[in-house]
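lol ok so funny story. i was supposed to be doing the assay writeup but got distracted and ended up predicting the structure for this chain instead. priorities right. anyway since i did it might as well share w the group, maybe its usefull for someone
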Amino acid sequence: MILSFIEAFSYEFMRNALIVGICVSLCAALLGVSLVLKKYSMLGDGLSHVGFGALAIATVIGATPLLVAIPTVIVVAFLLLRVSNRSKTSGDALVAVISATALAIGVFAMSISSGSNIDVYNYMFGSIVAVSKSDMIVTLVVSIIVITLYVISYNNMFAITFDETFAKTSGVKVELYNSLLAILTSVIVVIGMKMMGALLISSLIIFPSISAMAICKRYKSVVITSAIISIVAFLVGLFFSYTLSTPCGASVVIVNVIILVVCKIVAFVRR
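and the output, tada:
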């Protein structure tokens, strides 16, 4: 079975899926730690639904999906942060409203288009077969940019994650780095949707971070462990997806759930 999985990489779509999956998993895990600690974990889920709505509309009108989806999701993420900080409505409620609205718009756009479009279906549920070489190249370039920006702003990200008030008094531009976090998350969510699907991409942000927090206590350790867990979960999920012919996104999520349970058990035994 393992040999057949290794032989699978003779196919271009498997090589593309491997590179895209590792890049997206790594970036999502790095950003996910701050998002979970700042209680913005559902932001990824909301943005994925916005991305699906934008992709559906772009496909219907014949536009390039990523060129429409990425700017749309970035704008929504920025507005969501601004409104949630100044509105009496809770952030979770705003995310829920935006998620439902975007998903409804996407489904409506699909229903009035001429026939069912396989690309939109793949963006909603994910497919490793749908990952093309151009997707791989775009993901690789974007991931390098995201990781570079994250490393450069690591100390400031750490500061705004735990104490925004102290960070602001220390001269850190809190709104700027909150916006940067939202923008980077938006980009990763959109480029990861084709493989994981809009309904499951947020799991890459949430599960590895929670698992790492269960067994690690220091911020840096949590970030590193989260990245390792995310990549391992993807590789195992990809293995099962290919050998058992199961959806890639669902397979990766199930592996993440198992890892989370194991980490919680380890944490319980330690106590």
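The chain has a mean pLDDT of 82. The two ends are 39 Å apart (CA to CA).
back to the writeup now i swear
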